[in-house]
Structure formats: structure tokens, C-alpha cells
Amino acid sequence: MTSRPLRIAVQLQPQHAEYADLRDAVLRAEDAGVDVVFNWDHFYPLTGDLDGKHFECWTMLGAWAEQTERVEIGALVTGNGYRNPDLLADMARTVDHISGGRLVLGIGAGWNQKDYEQFGYEFGTAGSRIAQLSAALPRIRTRLAAGNPAPTRDVPLLIGGGGEKKMLRLVAEHADIWHSFGDAEVLRRKSAILDAHGADVGRDTARLVERSVGVSRPPAEVGDAVTAAGATLLTIGVDGPDYDLSLVEQWVAWRDERRQD
CA–CA distance from 99 to each of 9, 62, 155 (Å)? Predict the structure, then answer.
């Protein structure tokens, strides 16, 4: 697998907070030294009061593009079924320009039934949602290429998902970054499956697809294991309204120590 720089991300979960809390948190995260700041693409909280305070993903990314200077920004991950794929691509192109080329286009098949039903989208089945994503990804790439002005760079495409037959096939075909849901053992096993799909489609995924994973414990406990399994983008989820970055700061310090080795 290609040697990549170790990167630390934070997911600022846009729930149970005022926007002022999120604005403060994204600036603190950038000051703390993270490489990427993610939000998520849901319409309601996922924990706590499920009808509590919540904000929309892509509107927020446009604001973050202006509020930050250095970090990459993106959704972990956009729900494909919530937007026309050509529209999503043009939104991404616009945020890419607003940010000066710092957008990561994260996308997945979608899963939260409440989001679909309350906003009038057809929930379907896991299979139908993956099929929609499969149809959307080429359209997104085509629309990005057709934009005027063109994106500032080849916008990195992050795909989140772990289904071994269908989702990892899409990752092999399209992704620059793959976000795995699970621990180091799951990452290692599914990474091998991803590379097998890559061989089938003629793409060197070991070299071309960065491995991403979420971490919720201190780096002293899990850092060596997840990086040994191939992950180089490590994301810590942080909830509102306080957005406590203490664990994030531990991971940034751990990253910096390893960069100096």
C-alpha cells in the first residue's frame, strides 16, 4: 500500500447545538491542528432527543468554506438519495471554489429511515439505495467535469460503506478515499476485499484509495492497531453543544509525534 501522510479529522455532529456553537467549534478544530473537519448529512439528531436541534449539511459546508482557511471540509457522508446527483456535483463545485480547493466530497447510500420519510424521499431497500448510488456516481463525475468554471482540483471522492459485494465494488470503481465502519480487524479484512474488487475492475486500490476510519478511544489504545491495518485518515466524532476537542487534541499530538519519527 502506498505510504500516505497520517491525517486527523474531526466530525462536528450538527446536533443539539446552536450554529454559534458550531462556528466556534470549527474554528477551534482548525486551530487545534486537524487536517479535515467533517459534519454529517442528516435532518434530525441521531442520538439524544431525536427531534432536537439540528442543521443541514451542505449549507453549513458553504459557511465553513468561508470561516476556515486551512482545513479540508466535507460531509461524512452525504446521503445520496437526498439530492439530484447533478445538483450535488454543482454544489460541490461551488463549495470547492468558495474554500479555495479544500472540499472532500463524501457520499454514501443512505440509511436513516426518518430522514427519508420526514422529507418525502422514498426509503426503498438497502439494495435500491446502493443501486441509486451506483447510478449517481458517474453523473457526479461528469457534472463536475462539465462545470464552468471547472473545480479548482480533482475533488477527492470519499465513499462510506462496508457492504462487501456491492459497496466495496463501488469504492473500487470510484473512490479516492474509503471510510470503513468498524475496528482494525474489520478494516484489515474488508481492505483485502476492496483490493480484490480493485483487481477485478483494473484499478490499483491499494495505491489509489486512502483508508479512513472513525476512532473513539485514545491513540495510546487503538492508534497503532488502526494504522497497522492501513488507515491514514482517522476521525473523531464530537457532539454538541459543547464540542469537547480534548480527545481530538490527543490524536493531533500523536500524529505530530509520528510525523517526526
Answer: 17, 8, 12
The residue-averaged pLDDT of 222-241 equals: 97
Spatial distance between the Cα atoms of 19 and 41, rounded to a whole number of angstroms: 15
| pTM reported for the whole predicted model | 0.96
Nearest to 58 by CA among 95, 93, 107: 95
Largest CA distance in the chain: 52
Q: Whole-angstrom Cα distance, residue 25 to residue 7?
A: 19
Q: Is the dihedral of CA 168, 107, 133, 163 positive or negative?
A: positive
Q: What is the pLDDT of residues 172-189, one digit of tens each?
A: 999 999 999 999 999 999
Distance CA 21, CA 24 (A): 5
Instruction: For the beta carbon of residue 157, count every other beta carbon within 10 angstroms.
Output: 21
Whole-number Å distance between alpha carbons of 13 and 52: 13
User: At 5, phi and psi to the nearest 5?
Assistant: -65, 140
The tens digit of pLDDT for each residue in 188-200 reads 999 999 999 999 9
Q: How many CA atoms lie within 13 A of 247 on its CB side?
A: 22
Cα–Cα distance for residue pair 107/137, rounded to 1 Å: 9
